[in-house]
Amino acid sequence: MNNELTGMPRIGDKAPDFNAVTTTGKLNFSDYNQGSWVVFFSHPADFTPVCTTEMSGFAKEQDSFFATRNAKLLGLSIDSIHSHIAWVENVRKNTGVLFKFPIVADIDMSVSKLWGMLQPGESETAAVRAVFIVDPMGVIRLIMYYPMNVGRSMDEIKRCLIALQTSAENSCSMPLNWQPGDNVILPAPKTLEALDERVNSGLEMMDFYLATKSL
Ligand code: BEZ
Q1: CA–CA separation, 4 vs 15, rounded Å?
Q2: Alpha carbons 52 and 45: distance in angstroms, whole number
Q3: Tens digit of pLDDT for each residue in 8-53?
Q4: Facing residues of 25 across strands?
Q5: Atom 1 of ligand 1, nearest CA residue
Q6: What number is the average pLDDT over the span 69-85?
Q7: Cβ(99)–Cβ(67) under 8 Å?
């Protein structure tokens, strides 16, 4: 298998930088990422049904959710800029939904390869449905991969962004099925003194290593 196609960035890695042509003009990833979260997602192809539902889902949340959470959207597929523009216009004409966020025209596959969006067992020529959530320091905090035939969950993408931001702001973790507003998990004590404090804290806990609190 061609290694060039299977390089995969990992959680905790610095987001690989690139320059690209997009539907909103030329874009440098690190400049775009400067000071804000970025949700970077790939889709297999323009003018395809599942992708149209997904991109429309992102577009419907671009101002009301992502912008209010200091998160920018960035799409990508291995299509030409002309195809992207025609598709964006087609969806706008048919549904009134406008994809305002940039979509990378990755016709030479360079960005898809750099970001591990090509998974050759699924397709050697089209990107899978990947989602990377990158923090404002340019570090990849979460990665999701979906195959060609399963659309992503917008609720889950939104939940993950809120969870990552809440965790970054409060140094906490989120339990199974956490939803915004639920209790969060506190870091386990790292010294005996901290252990004593934890045990006497009055916090809700199963034991000293699993304590939760409301924010
Ligand atoms: C779709 O978006 O519908 C799709 C794209 C590529 C392969 C299969 C489905």
Answers
A1: 17
A2: 9
A3: 899 999 999 999 999 999 999 999 999 999 999 999 999 999 999 9
A4: 22
A5: 50
A6: 98
A7: no
Scan for tokens 């939760």, then name that residue. 212
Active-site residue set? 51
Cross-strand partners of 184: 213
What is the whole-number distance in angstroms between the Cα of residue 46 and the centre of ligand 1?
9
Pocket lining: 164 vs ligand 1, CB cutoff 6 Å = no
Q: What is the pLDDT of residues 131-190, one digit of tens each?
A: 999 999 999 999 999 999 999 999 999 999 999 999 999 999 999 999 999 999 999 999
Is the separation of the CB atoms in 104 and 20 below 8 Å? yes
CA distances from 121 to 7, 51, 94, 158 (A): 14, 20, 34, 29
Amino acid 2: pLDDT: 45
Fill in the amino acid letter for 122: E
State if residue 45 touches ligand 1 by the CB under 6 angstroms criterion: yes
Prediction pTM value: 0.95
Dig out the tokens for 182 from the structure: 């639920």
186 DSSP 8-state letter: P
Distance 47 CA to ligand 1 centre (A): 9
Closest atom of ligand 1 to CA, residue 51: 2
